[in-house]
Amino acid sequence: MSKALTLAGIEKIKPATARREIPDAHCPGLYLVVQPSGSKSWVVRYRFNGRPRKHTLGRYPTIRLGETKEEAKARLAKNPKSQSADARELARAALRAVALGEDPQAEKAEARRQEQAGLTKSDLLGAVFEEYKERHFPSLRKSTSHEIERLFNKRILPRWRKRRMAEIKKRDVLALADSMITDGAPISANRMIAAVSHFFNWAVQRDIIEYSPCVGIKKPTPQKSRDRVLSDDELRWLWLAADGIGWPFGPVVKLLILTGARRSEITNMRDSELLLDKCLFVIPVNRSKNGVQHEIHLSDLALDIVQSLPRIKSKHGLKFTTTGETPISGLSRAKITLDKLMLKHAKKESRDKSADISVPPWVYHDLRRSMASGMARLGVHLPVIERALNHISGSFGGVQGIYQRHSFADEKVAAFEKWSRHIEHVLGAKDESVAPLQRQKRSSA
User: Fold this and answer.
1) How crowded is residue 42: how many other Cβ atoms within 10 Å of its Cβ?
2) Is the peptide bond before 436 cis (omega within 30 degrees of 0)?
3) 51 pairs with which residues across the strands?
């Protein structure tokens, strides 16, 4: 049985005729290697992609156990960017990197190879992308630059950040697109191809690389403009399904129905964005897709949902959080349950119990289109609907957008109220639970 290594114990270890690896029970994966010559060093053993790997940390006593405050202070004074000289801290850092999908030993070998070849960090994709952001992003719309950065941070940089630009080939781009399609994100794969292609073309123009690995690559998935609109019955089934799934996803879905906001705009909602005395949800510039502040009127029904949210301590003021640090995630998985509950309510309401009932596929973004279509049916004019959705194209694009500065604030309030009353009517058609809720709220006002 292994024991926790100590400085005193290490000093007492004598060399043997064969190389020895002594595990540290205090940090699984960390080993002290003792050579027949008497030299000692530290290694970390781990598995990467199912294969055993060994990462050498360095020699003892240059790297020791339990670096003192004085030693740490002296080390940082000599080199502020230097790593801890404590073996356990270095081992834990390496194992954290493995958990995030990185291979410390491979990266160490790559860094050594680049150093021997005379390469610098400026050759790496991560560094080039930072230059790309600095030089090219100011010429783009904020919504475009936000989407490109989101794709790179989520899909591209985790794989290629430390790879040389010239080493990335067409097969690498295709492999990334294939993995995204396998993960169920075919449209995101199309967008990734477009973003990466533009990035590498920019790098060619800057003479950073000779050619783009994206030449000849087509979008992997045929893309059609969606026209899915949920019917009133489907909206009722979804609302009831949201009741069934409860916190935290249920309230999110209800607010998506009532506000037409984007999914991230709701899940990242903060206390500072809610002006409840004015019945407003204000999405700031840095959170709106088009970089324009968006004010959403909160009807009584929406206000009741917001005010009934559980209070979870969050230094960021997040309304939808379970940790207090980050917004909730898992809406895609929650939708599987929502679909099942919707189908259950559809079958329950069906008069023909023998009929083959189904609910056509839908996505969360369809709820924006459903609200827009519903408002149009209720007589709301198109420019007001576009303001309610925070669109800056359409009626507000081109020359007209330059001169059309009317905020439509009052018209938006009327539109959101009209839509909320319609949802109440849709729910009341089969479920009388909404009416008492509204009466109770208004009587207490």
Assistant:
1) 24
2) no
3) 48
Q: Would you say the pTM of this structure is higher than 0.70?
A: no
CATH number of this structure's domain 122-205, picked from the four choices 1.10.10.60, 1.10.150.130, 3.40.366.10, 1.10.10.650: 1.10.150.130
Q: Output the six-digit token pair for 346.
A: 């559809």
**Mapped to the 3 state alphabet, what secondary structure does 197-213 carry?**
HHHHHHHHHCCCCCCCC
Spell out the CATH class of 232-443: mainly alpha
Does a cis peptide bond (omega within 30 degrees of 0) precede residue 61? yes
Q: Which of 166, 239, 149 is nearest to 200 (CA)?
A: 166
Pairing relationship of beta strands 294-297 and 40-48 according to DSSP bridges: unpaired
List per-residue pLDDT tens for the chain, 445 residues long: 568 888 888 888 999 999 999 999 888 899 999 999 999 999 999 998 788 999 998 888 888 887 667 767 776 777 776 666 788 888 988 898 888 778 888 777 766 665 555 555 567 899 999 999 999 998 887 778 888 998 999 889 988 988 889 889 999 999 999 988 887 788 888 999 999 999 999 999 988 898 999 999 988 877 666 788 999 999 999 999 999 999 999 999 999 999 999 999 999 999 999 999 999 999 998 888 777 899 999 999 999 999 999 999 998 999 999 999 999 988 989 999 999 999 999 999 988 776 788 999 999 999 999 999 999 999 999 999 999 999 865 444 443 443 344 568 899 999 999 999 999 999 985 544 444 334 334 433 3
For the segment(s) 7-117, the CATH number from 3.30.230.10, 3.20.20.70, 3.40.50.720, 3.30.160.390 is 3.30.160.390
